[in-house]
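User: Can you help me understand a structure? I only have the sequence.
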Amino acid sequence: MAEKSMTDQCKVEREESRKFREEVPKIVEQLVQTCNREECFDHVGPEPIPSRDTVVDIIHRINRILYPGYFLRTRVDEFNLSYYFGQEAITLFELLSEQITHAFRHDCIRHNLACVQCEERGQEAAIQFMRELPRLRAILATDVKAAYEGDPAAGSYDEIIFSYPGLLAITISRVAHILWEGGVPLIPRIMTEYAHSTTGIDIHPGAHIGPSFFIDHGTGVVIGETTEIGERVRLYQGVTLGALSLPKDAGAQLRHKKRHPTIEDDVIIYAGATILGGNTVIGARSHIGGNVWITESVPPDTRVFMKRPELIYKAKSD
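Assistant: Let's start by predicting it. Here is the structure, written out as C-alpha coordinates:
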Protein backbone atom coordinates (compact mmCIF):
# COMPACT_ATOMS: atom_id res chain seq x y z
CA MET A 1 0.00 0.00 0.00
CA ALA A 2 2.82 2.34 0.94
CA GLU A 3 4.64 1.45 -2.30
CA LYS A 4 1.55 2.28 -4.39
CA SER A 5 1.18 5.60 -2.60
CA MET A 6 4.81 6.48 -3.38
CA THR A 7 4.29 5.59 -7.06
CA ASP A 8 1.24 7.85 -7.23
CA GLN A 9 3.25 10.67 -5.64
CA CYS A 10 6.02 10.26 -8.22
CA LYS A 11 3.45 10.54 -11.04
CA VAL A 12 2.14 13.77 -9.56
CA GLU A 13 5.69 15.19 -9.25
CA ARG A 14 6.49 14.25 -12.87
CA GLU A 15 3.37 16.04 -14.07
CA GLU A 16 4.28 19.13 -12.07
CA SER A 17 7.79 19.06 -13.49
CA ARG A 18 6.41 18.76 -17.01
CA LYS A 19 4.28 21.88 -16.51
CA PHE A 20 7.32 23.89 -15.50
CA ARG A 21 9.44 22.59 -18.37
CA GLU A 22 6.69 23.47 -20.85
CA GLU A 23 7.31 27.13 -20.00
CA VAL A 24 10.93 27.02 -21.16
CA PRO A 25 10.22 27.31 -24.95
CA LYS A 26 8.06 30.40 -24.31
CA ILE A 27 10.88 32.01 -22.33
CA VAL A 28 13.35 31.15 -25.11
CA GLU A 29 11.06 32.83 -27.65
CA GLN A 30 10.89 35.96 -25.49
CA LEU A 31 14.68 35.99 -25.18
CA VAL A 32 15.06 35.77 -28.97
CA GLN A 33 12.70 38.73 -29.33
CA THR A 34 14.83 40.83 -26.95
CA CYS A 35 17.70 40.54 -29.44
CA ASN A 36 15.73 42.80 -31.80
CA ARG A 37 15.43 45.57 -29.22
CA GLU A 38 17.83 48.50 -29.15
CA GLU A 39 17.80 48.69 -25.37
CA CYS A 40 19.34 45.20 -25.05
CA PHE A 41 22.97 44.37 -25.82
CA ASP A 42 24.10 41.32 -27.72
CA HIS A 43 26.50 40.22 -30.42
CA VAL A 44 24.49 37.93 -32.67
CA GLY A 45 26.04 37.41 -36.09
CA PRO A 46 28.41 35.30 -38.13
CA GLU A 47 31.57 37.24 -37.24
CA PRO A 48 33.25 36.23 -33.94
CA ILE A 49 34.45 38.84 -31.47
CA PRO A 50 37.56 38.49 -29.31
CA SER A 51 37.35 35.71 -26.75
CA ARG A 52 38.01 36.79 -23.17
CA ASP A 53 39.22 33.29 -22.26
CA THR A 54 41.69 33.31 -25.15
CA VAL A 55 42.94 36.78 -24.22
CA VAL A 56 43.56 35.57 -20.66
CA ASP A 57 45.44 32.58 -22.10
CA ILE A 58 47.51 35.02 -24.17
CA ILE A 59 48.38 36.94 -20.99
CA HIS A 60 49.70 33.75 -19.39
CA ARG A 61 51.71 32.90 -22.51
CA ILE A 62 53.22 36.40 -22.62
CA ASN A 63 54.13 36.05 -18.94
CA ARG A 64 55.98 32.81 -19.73
CA ILE A 65 57.98 34.66 -22.39
CA LEU A 66 58.68 37.73 -20.27
CA TYR A 67 59.70 35.62 -17.25
CA PRO A 68 61.06 32.42 -18.83
CA GLY A 69 61.19 29.43 -16.54
CA TYR A 70 58.98 30.84 -13.80
CA PHE A 71 55.48 29.76 -14.79
CA LEU A 72 56.14 26.28 -16.18
CA ARG A 73 56.00 22.72 -14.91
CA THR A 74 59.00 21.80 -17.05
CA ARG A 75 62.57 23.02 -16.73
CA VAL A 76 64.15 25.61 -19.02
CA ASP A 77 67.94 25.66 -19.37
CA GLU A 78 70.54 26.89 -21.86
CA PHE A 79 70.12 23.75 -23.97
CA ASN A 80 66.40 24.10 -24.69
CA LEU A 81 65.98 27.89 -24.36
CA SER A 82 65.79 28.54 -28.12
CA TYR A 83 63.29 25.73 -28.57
CA TYR A 84 61.24 27.04 -25.62
CA PHE A 85 61.09 30.60 -26.95
CA GLY A 86 60.36 29.33 -30.47
CA GLN A 87 57.40 27.22 -29.36
CA GLU A 88 55.95 29.93 -27.14
CA ALA A 89 56.50 32.71 -29.68
CA ILE A 90 54.86 31.02 -32.66
CA THR A 91 51.81 29.98 -30.61
CA LEU A 92 51.55 33.50 -29.20
CA PHE A 93 51.71 35.01 -32.69
CA GLU A 94 48.94 32.76 -33.98
CA LEU A 95 46.60 33.34 -31.05
CA LEU A 96 47.27 37.07 -30.77
CA SER A 97 46.92 37.81 -34.47
CA GLU A 98 43.62 35.90 -34.56
CA GLN A 99 42.19 37.83 -31.60
CA ILE A 100 43.40 41.19 -32.93
CA THR A 101 41.83 40.36 -36.30
CA HIS A 102 38.52 39.67 -34.54
CA ALA A 103 38.81 43.01 -32.73
CA PHE A 104 39.51 44.98 -35.91
CA ARG A 105 36.76 43.19 -37.83
CA HIS A 106 34.27 43.75 -35.02
CA ASP A 107 34.97 47.49 -35.15
CA CYS A 108 34.65 47.57 -38.94
CA ILE A 109 31.26 45.86 -38.88
CA ARG A 110 29.95 47.79 -35.87
CA HIS A 111 30.88 51.16 -37.41
CA ASN A 112 30.12 50.13 -41.01
CA LEU A 113 33.65 50.94 -42.20
CA ALA A 114 35.17 50.12 -45.57
CA CYS A 115 37.24 46.94 -45.72
CA VAL A 116 40.75 47.51 -44.34
CA GLN A 117 42.09 43.95 -44.66
CA CYS A 118 41.55 43.07 -41.00
CA GLU A 119 43.46 39.78 -41.13
CA GLU A 120 46.60 41.43 -42.48
CA ARG A 121 46.25 44.24 -39.94
CA GLY A 122 45.86 41.68 -37.18
CA GLN A 123 49.04 39.86 -38.15
CA GLU A 124 50.95 43.13 -38.54
CA ALA A 125 49.80 44.38 -35.12
CA ALA A 126 50.72 41.05 -33.53
CA ILE A 127 54.23 41.03 -34.96
CA GLN A 128 54.73 44.69 -34.05
CA PHE A 129 53.83 43.81 -30.48
CA MET A 130 56.21 40.87 -30.46
CA ARG A 131 59.06 43.08 -31.71
CA GLU A 132 58.64 44.98 -28.42
CA LEU A 133 59.10 41.92 -26.22
CA PRO A 134 62.90 42.20 -25.76
CA ARG A 135 62.56 45.88 -24.79
CA LEU A 136 59.63 45.05 -22.54
CA ARG A 137 61.66 42.40 -20.69
CA ALA A 138 64.33 45.02 -19.96
CA ILE A 139 61.78 47.51 -18.59
CA LEU A 140 60.11 44.89 -16.41
CA ALA A 141 63.52 44.00 -14.98
CA THR A 142 63.69 47.58 -13.63
CA ASP A 143 60.24 47.11 -12.06
CA VAL A 144 61.35 43.89 -10.34
CA LYS A 145 64.47 45.61 -8.99
CA ALA A 146 62.40 48.60 -7.83
CA ALA A 147 60.13 46.27 -5.87
CA TYR A 148 63.10 44.56 -4.23
CA GLU A 149 64.79 47.84 -3.34
CA GLY A 150 61.54 49.45 -2.14
CA ASP A 151 60.19 46.62 0.01
CA PRO A 152 62.27 45.28 2.91
CA ALA A 153 59.83 42.36 3.15
CA ALA A 154 60.85 41.09 -0.29
CA GLY A 155 63.04 38.04 0.19
CA SER A 156 64.20 37.69 -3.40
CA TYR A 157 63.50 38.60 -7.01
CA ASP A 158 61.87 35.18 -7.39
CA GLU A 159 59.39 35.97 -4.63
CA ILE A 160 58.42 39.21 -6.35
CA ILE A 161 57.93 37.60 -9.77
CA PHE A 162 55.96 34.68 -8.38
CA SER A 163 53.74 36.43 -5.88
CA TYR A 164 53.58 40.24 -5.98
CA PRO A 165 50.23 41.49 -7.33
CA GLY A 166 51.78 44.87 -8.11
CA LEU A 167 54.24 43.32 -10.55
CA LEU A 168 51.52 41.25 -12.21
CA ALA A 169 49.35 44.34 -12.69
CA ILE A 170 52.30 46.36 -14.03
CA THR A 171 53.30 43.55 -16.41
CA ILE A 172 49.82 43.26 -17.87
CA SER A 173 49.51 47.05 -18.03
CA ARG A 174 52.74 47.39 -20.01
CA VAL A 175 51.63 44.63 -22.39
CA ALA A 176 48.21 46.23 -22.86
CA HIS A 177 49.74 49.68 -23.33
CA ILE A 178 51.77 48.52 -26.33
CA LEU A 179 48.60 47.15 -27.95
CA TRP A 180 46.71 50.33 -27.00
CA GLU A 181 49.37 52.48 -28.63
CA GLY A 182 49.11 50.25 -31.71
CA GLY A 183 45.43 51.10 -32.06
CA VAL A 184 44.14 47.63 -31.15
CA PRO A 185 40.54 47.87 -29.87
CA LEU A 186 38.94 45.90 -27.02
CA ILE A 187 41.85 43.58 -26.20
CA PRO A 188 43.90 46.02 -24.07
CA ARG A 189 40.88 46.72 -21.86
CA ILE A 190 40.11 43.02 -21.52
CA MET A 191 43.70 42.52 -20.36
CA THR A 192 43.79 45.30 -17.78
CA GLU A 193 40.34 44.47 -16.42
CA TYR A 194 41.52 40.88 -15.96
CA ALA A 195 44.46 42.27 -13.97
CA HIS A 196 42.03 44.45 -12.02
CA SER A 197 39.81 41.50 -11.10
CA THR A 198 42.86 39.40 -10.16
CA THR A 199 44.92 41.93 -8.19
CA GLY A 200 42.54 44.74 -7.18
CA ILE A 201 44.77 47.17 -9.10
CA ASP A 202 43.06 49.16 -11.87
CA ILE A 203 45.47 50.58 -14.47
CA HIS A 204 44.02 51.88 -17.71
CA PRO A 205 46.06 50.68 -20.72
CA GLY A 206 46.36 54.26 -21.97
CA ALA A 207 48.41 55.37 -18.93
CA HIS A 208 52.08 56.17 -19.65
CA ILE A 209 54.34 54.63 -16.99
CA GLY A 210 58.10 55.03 -16.80
CA PRO A 211 60.62 52.37 -15.73
CA SER A 212 61.37 51.26 -12.16
CA PHE A 213 57.72 51.53 -11.14
CA PHE A 214 56.64 49.88 -7.89
CA ILE A 215 53.17 49.40 -6.40
CA ASP A 216 53.45 48.13 -2.82
CA HIS A 217 50.53 45.97 -1.59
CA GLY A 218 48.41 47.50 -4.33
CA THR A 219 44.79 46.77 -3.42
CA GLY A 220 42.54 49.66 -4.47
CA VAL A 221 45.07 51.51 -6.64
CA VAL A 222 43.44 53.31 -9.58
CA ILE A 223 45.44 54.87 -12.44
CA GLY A 224 43.42 56.67 -15.11
CA GLU A 225 43.80 56.67 -18.88
CA THR A 226 45.74 59.91 -19.39
CA THR A 227 47.99 59.57 -16.32
CA GLU A 228 51.69 60.13 -16.95
CA ILE A 229 54.15 58.59 -14.49
CA GLY A 230 57.87 59.23 -14.57
CA GLU A 231 60.78 57.05 -13.51
CA ARG A 232 61.31 55.41 -10.10
CA VAL A 233 57.81 56.23 -8.80
CA ARG A 234 56.38 54.28 -5.86
CA LEU A 235 52.70 53.94 -4.93
CA TYR A 236 51.06 52.31 -1.97
CA GLN A 237 47.62 50.73 -1.61
CA GLY A 238 44.49 52.79 -2.15
CA VAL A 239 46.13 55.53 -4.25
CA THR A 240 43.90 57.14 -6.87
CA LEU A 241 45.33 59.01 -9.86
CA GLY A 242 42.01 60.10 -11.29
CA ALA A 243 39.94 62.72 -13.06
CA LEU A 244 37.88 65.52 -11.57
CA SER A 245 34.13 65.05 -11.54
CA LEU A 246 32.57 66.00 -14.87
CA PRO A 247 29.17 67.38 -15.87
CA LYS A 248 26.77 64.73 -17.11
CA ASP A 249 27.12 65.67 -20.79
CA ALA A 250 30.87 66.38 -20.80
CA GLY A 251 32.12 62.82 -21.29
CA ALA A 252 32.22 62.88 -25.09
CA GLN A 253 33.91 66.31 -25.22
CA LEU A 254 36.70 65.27 -22.84
CA ARG A 255 37.11 61.67 -23.99
CA HIS A 256 40.55 62.22 -25.59
CA LYS A 257 41.70 65.16 -23.43
CA LYS A 258 44.22 65.06 -20.55
CA ARG A 259 42.08 64.36 -17.50
CA HIS A 260 44.47 62.62 -15.10
CA PRO A 261 47.55 63.87 -13.24
CA THR A 262 51.23 63.81 -14.13
CA ILE A 263 53.62 62.27 -11.60
CA GLU A 264 57.25 63.22 -12.15
CA ASP A 265 60.39 61.20 -11.35
CA ASP A 266 61.20 59.77 -7.89
CA VAL A 267 57.82 60.57 -6.33
CA ILE A 268 56.44 58.48 -3.45
CA ILE A 269 52.67 58.46 -2.85
CA TYR A 270 51.48 56.85 0.35
CA ALA A 271 48.34 54.83 1.08
CA GLY A 272 44.93 56.32 0.41
CA ALA A 273 46.12 59.50 -1.33
CA THR A 274 43.86 60.91 -4.05
CA ILE A 275 45.34 63.08 -6.82
CA LEU A 276 42.94 64.40 -9.45
CA GLY A 277 42.92 66.47 -12.63
CA GLY A 278 44.70 66.70 -15.94
CA ASN A 279 46.49 69.93 -14.99
CA THR A 280 47.78 68.53 -11.70
CA VAL A 281 51.52 67.85 -11.68
CA ILE A 282 53.34 66.29 -8.73
CA GLY A 283 56.88 67.60 -8.94
CA ALA A 284 59.94 65.36 -8.92
CA ARG A 285 61.17 63.88 -5.64
CA SER A 286 58.02 64.92 -3.76
CA HIS A 287 56.44 62.75 -1.07
CA ILE A 288 52.65 62.68 -0.81
CA GLY A 289 51.36 61.54 2.56
CA GLY A 290 48.55 59.11 3.21
CA ASN A 291 44.88 60.06 2.78
CA VAL A 292 45.54 63.52 1.31
CA TRP A 293 43.30 65.01 -1.40
CA ILE A 294 45.13 66.97 -4.10
CA THR A 295 43.65 68.84 -7.08
CA GLU A 296 46.47 71.37 -7.60
CA SER A 297 50.08 70.99 -8.67
CA VAL A 298 52.82 70.36 -6.13
CA PRO A 299 56.33 71.81 -6.69
CA PRO A 300 59.37 69.50 -6.84
CA ASP A 301 61.00 68.42 -3.56
CA THR A 302 57.81 68.97 -1.53
CA ARG A 303 56.26 66.96 1.28
CA VAL A 304 52.48 67.04 1.50
CA PHE A 305 50.82 65.49 4.54
CA MET A 306 47.74 65.77 6.71
CA LYS A 307 47.85 67.71 9.95
CA ARG A 308 48.28 65.31 12.83
CA PRO A 309 44.80 64.39 14.06
CA GLU A 310 43.89 64.76 17.73
CA LEU A 311 43.55 61.35 19.33
CA ILE A 312 41.26 60.89 22.32
CA TYR A 313 42.03 58.19 24.85
CA LYS A 314 39.31 57.08 27.25
CA ALA A 315 39.51 54.36 29.83
CA LYS A 316 37.02 51.54 29.43
CA SER A 317 34.14 51.83 31.81
CA ASP A 318 33.78 48.95 34.28
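Now, to help you interpret it: The first strand starts at residue 202 and ends at 203. The chain has two domains: 42-201, 220-318. Let me know which part you'd like to focus on.
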